[in-house]
């Protein structure tokens, strides 16, 4: 009887019982109860009944391994698959074979103007440039936060960092930098497993799911394997490697750091290359099954380390007056781009490029430095400031999307979008339908824009909240509404207003000239913060206002 039920489930779910690791259907330790009333709970107290086959009972009822009887502790299935199997409001719009492969490439700390197709005067990026010529280049794409962890959590969950209470990098969550007149809030350091990640939704739809590279949204009990990924290589709770060269370990920021899962190597092996090796292995192993490959490179985050030959190449290219003048950083960007080319070439060689969506983006603005002997890591001009700031240089990021036969080609899209939108976009692209009335994050689907870059979006305002100190900012919230950009600094309530159409560099504060517009946007920002339950800094009890040095990830 158990075999019959299991086979029926597999048929209903349109997947083979034996997946990429030979045990997709029943060996999934990341499952929680399928009851929508319990979605926010790590576990619940749903009663067990005297059904004969515990593994099948767990599968039918969406129980976690902890909840199942002892005989059932070999595993269960994701709650999305359960909802499908029980017709509880979750369904698939198309068969597995018709769903596109998805490759999401996320660079770390890559500035908006760090790519040739976004105006760099030194960096060579023919791979991403080719991707842009075959897809859509978004000129007004934003990270949901000016630092890494919150952006990554938002991409995975579809929820705004302020709603998640994950607004700073993980290492600073419990002990945020202090020293100013306000005290930043203590924030969440691990993406809760109760959140339904985009990987869980795609996995439930029959996708092979793989996370390669930087994780940084949770400790070992919240690693990718607990959040919907079949395969996870190279990710930890740390934000950057000790070194980009084999064996990828050493002292960094007071820790002995390492990059797991890459096995034996040779002197001179480069981390960016090795992560791509593993990505290629996933694509080849997936065979005919659709795959979701989340390739989260550590580069171009510090430490600044690059292949010597590329460094020399860019040293010879630097001319007086160039905005970008860091040869080592340019070499890191080039290695990143070479590996994007490797992925694109593999998709073409395997004959699957036409049914693979490829997305390239970055988690926040470029880091302005300095770092060791480098006076500046990069230059985000014409944008103001950089990583950590809510000025454009801290949150505007490159975003390129290629989706053959669906997205326009060689086109620029100037509508403001945010990376939180990727959640709904990937769910829709995969043909996964969300149950009527189910809240599916704070973003919107960009599929209409991919089909028509002039399509109207059901949103006209983007929001940010960074109640923390960083080397580029004091605690601040911001919004963009059409061409207007408002920043509210939370130490003293100071407001700044810019018109991005006329002043992309944010050099001319118009708040005093436009008090009515400023007040309307301020009230809108306050209402949004209340709606999402944003954490706020509180006044410092001490009279001291000396600021401590802000550590960097």
Summarize the helices and strands and which ones pair or pack.
Elements: H1 2-13, H2 54-61, H3 79-85, E1 91-92, E2 101-107, H4 126-133, E3 136-142, H5 148-157, H6 161-164, E4 182-183, H7 198-204, E5 208-213, E6 231-233, E7 250-252, E8 255-257, H8 271-286, E9 291-296, H9 308-317, H10 327-349, E10 356-362, H11 392-395, E11 396-402, E12 411-413, E13 417-418, H12 421-429, E14 432-433, H13 447-451, E15 461-466, E16 476-481, E17 484-489, E18 495-499, H14 515-532, E19 538-539
Parallel strand pairs: 2-9, 2-10, 3-12, 3-13, 5-6, 5-9
Antiparallel strand pairs: 1-14, 3-11, 4-19, 7-8, 10-11, 15-16, 16-17, 17-18
Helix pairs in contact: 4-10, 8-10, 9-10
Walk me through this protein's architecture:
- With about 550 residues, this protein is of the alpha/beta class.
- It has three domains: about 1-90, no CATH class; about 100-450, Alkaline Phosphatase, subunit A, CATH 3.40.720; about 460-540, Arylsulfatase, C-terminal domain (2-Layer Sandwich).
- Helices cover about 25% and strands about 15% of the residues.
- It has 14 helices and 19 strands.
- The strands form five sheets. Strands 2, 3, 5, 6, 9, 10, 11, 12 and 13 form a nine-stranded mixed sheet that branches. A four-stranded antiparallel sheet has the order 15-16-17-18, covered by helices on one side.
- Strand 7 (about 250) and strand 8 (about 255) form a beta hairpin.
- Helix 8 runs parallel beside helix 10 and helix 9 (about 310-315) packs across helix 10.
- Mean pLDDT is about 85; it is low at about 1-90 and about 545-550.
